Amino acid sequence: MAVTVKTYASVSEAAGALSSDRSARYLGGGTLVMRALNEGDVAIATVIRAQDQALTRIDASGPRVTLGAGVTFARVLAERDLAFLHAPARSIGGPAVRNMGTVGGNLFAPSPYGDFTVALLALDATVAVAGGFGSRDIPIEEFLQARDRQAGTLVLSVSCTRPASSEAFRYRKIARIKPKGGSVVTLAAHLPISGGRIAGARIALGSMAPTQIRARAAERALEGRSLDATTIAAAASAAAEGTSPSDNALGSAWYRREIVGVYLRRLLSGQE
Amino acid sequence: MSKIPLQFRHNGRDVAIFVDGGTNLLVALRELIGDMTPKFGCGQGGCGTCSVLIDGELHLSCLTLAETVGGRSIETLDGMKQGPNLHPLQRAFADHFAAQCGYCTPGMLMAAKALLDRNPSPSRDEVVEAISGNICRCTGYEPIINAILAAAGGRVSA
């Protein structure tokens, strides 16, 4: 079935059109919406696009980093100031998908996809969205919890604070297919250190629930402690707590629960 | 529903077509322009056989909304041969038995061209990375990797 494509010059016009039409979807890089159309998703009658340059802007010069929703993973990889996000960007797709897929679209990618969002969740990112009533900032965790109801909101950008060091932010995607494939489990850890102790630990997991989630029990095991073997063991044994993974062709729910702690231990110990 | 007029460059030639809303670039190329070199594989971005270059950048044509390529330059495998001669990559694929059933070959060649256009002497790891979005079920990838390395090194029969 043919759909109606509406292209707007500004994000505010696109946001208005998106929020007023329940059968409309915003087209970013195409890897989600075009896939749905190819599969014959009749729920989509209108495709909305915006050619606003604000959507493709990268501000990575200071301690606070902002990525326009339309920034592709290839552009993240081309930006030297975004080195801390290169591992998650590189873990997605092949080159073609990285030339197309966007930071904003990744927020909507269902499990086992959405690896970049795992990194953003560990970094306590903020999502700027425009709805029918102007724009606002939402903490990424809140955004993800309500993701099913976000189809009518247009994501403008994501922002996060640059981690203090490369040690403070770690990322690992576990896939069966090398070098690329869907995620069995994706892990990201942000471990700011203050006076030799972890202050504000964030552990984010992908493919362990319908959306990307934080492993709060593991975070509690890390908080206020130094990153030694005892602390790492405690965090690893708590990694699966509160998760609700599903079975798919890449791995069973049981398998994901079994291995998530193993990989968290390796990530925290700095092992490959 | 009315058709949408669309103009772009296809392998160096200007083309003008009318597409339905929501038509993907792969369908536009195959059914409206008659270029059957990009293949339909999965329609989901998982297999890479529909890969084309848009303004020199590797894209999946099945996930590209046709009307977003207005005014842009599309390269497909159909435009790769140089007059009566095969492109060195095509020659290398033939020499190294890199095509077996052949279904992945158009996408593999475009992914390889995208790599060599910006990195004429890639490492083996860079070749593996460049074709990581392209699935081949016949060859086990080794002949394809060897063919791309041979083309990059100029070790191709005339």
TrEMBL record, chain B:
Lineage top rank: taxon: Bacteria
Any Pfam family matching the protein: Fer2
Keywords per UniProt: 2Fe-2S, Iron, Iron-sulfur, Metal-binding, Oxidoreductase
2Fe-2S ferredoxin-type domain: residues covered: 4-80
PROSITE patterns: 2FE2S_FER_1, 2FE2S_FER_2
PANTHER family documented for this protein: OXIDOREDUCTASE WITH IRON-SULFUR SUBUNIT, XANTHINE DEHYDROGENASE IRON-SULFUR-BINDING SUBUNIT XDHC-RELATED
The protein's name: (2Fe-2S)-binding protein
Species the sequence originates in: Bradyrhizobium symbiodeficiens
